[in-house]
Design goal:
- The protein has 12 helices and 10 strands.
- By secondary structure, the chain is an alpha/beta fold.
- It has one domain: Aldolase class I (TIM Barrel, Alpha-Beta Barrel).
- Strands 1-4-5-6-7-8-9-10 form an 8-stranded parallel β-barrel, surrounded by 9 helices.
- Helix 3 links the parallel strand 4 and strand 5.
- Helix 4 packs across helix 5 and helix 8 crosses helix 9.
- The model has no long low-confidence stretch (mean pLDDT 95).
- Bound molecules: ligand PBG.
Amino acid sequence: MSNQHPAVGYYPLVRMRRMRRDPFSRRLMREHRLTTDDLIYPMFVLPGDDRREAVESMPGVERLSVDLLLGELESVVELGIPAITLFPVIPEDRKSDKAEEAYNPEGLVPSAIRAIKEQFPDLGVITDVALDPYTSHGQDGLIDDDGYVVNDATIDVLVRQSLCHAEAGADILAPSDMMDGRVGQMREALEAADYHNVRILSYAAKYASSYYGPFRDAVGSAGNLGGGGKHSYQMDPANGDEALREVALDLEEGADMIMIKPGLPYLDVVRRVKDTFGAPTFVYQVSGEYAMLMAAARNGWLDEKSCALEALVSMKRAGADGILTYFAKRAAMWLRETE
Ligand code: PBG
């Protein structure tokens, strides 16, 4: 031990920096790794043919008609991304108070599923089960005269939507609506119709977050929603214990996988959920998280690649088994570069 530096605790016997000295030892002690297997790519689908629109508040994200989406999927599949999730942009004249378009077998989502499954049978196709793209008022469910989103009547429509997606060939249904009891009702209906292997990824702990803003622009539900919030069904950002109760219920009702949403501001919830249940746990790095990073990157204030990869690996460290992220395709490319 050196005379100049009297030992404090175990120093200098223990020097944490020794292992950080070289790339080889940093690699050896690395605890978590982001891989392409962890990525789910959310995509926005437009009706019609040969249509491509940029989403202004999400630089690098586009809405695509099914024909162009199929082209995009060539590279998604080639990169090895296991699954995508579909979000439809429904024309105003197809929206209604009762959201009938949500279970139209010839609708945009079922048509997209069929086309994708035909060309890419091994790609996991996840669909969002919720009514907000289909309601004229932009809420995730049916509303009563006071504008309150009614639970049980909404579930009836969600179940019809689920069967419609399953019939079209969806692999995983992802209810993002936060109605009470919908997972159980969906599971029962799927079993009764012999869709035993259609999985349910429930948005179990979905917070009433302001970080969904750019997504609502992307699917065109922001205007319809007006000033109306979703606080009567999505969770209060201040609550953590409540998330555990939500997850417990959804697992009991038959959810195969559960999700926490948004991501970065809720990683404490991801950790608690993973530790408590040990179930397949997913996290959604939402549109606002993506927009913040991209805005800073476009201004030259942050480095896009290293900041995006840092945010994604932090989600793995928090206990997520997989991540829904608009960076999925770029992340898969970056990961390939460093292999
Ligand atoms: C709709 C839904 C939303 C998102 C996914 N599904 C928005 C909302 O609840 O208003 C948000 C995704 C994102 O912000 O990236 N049920």
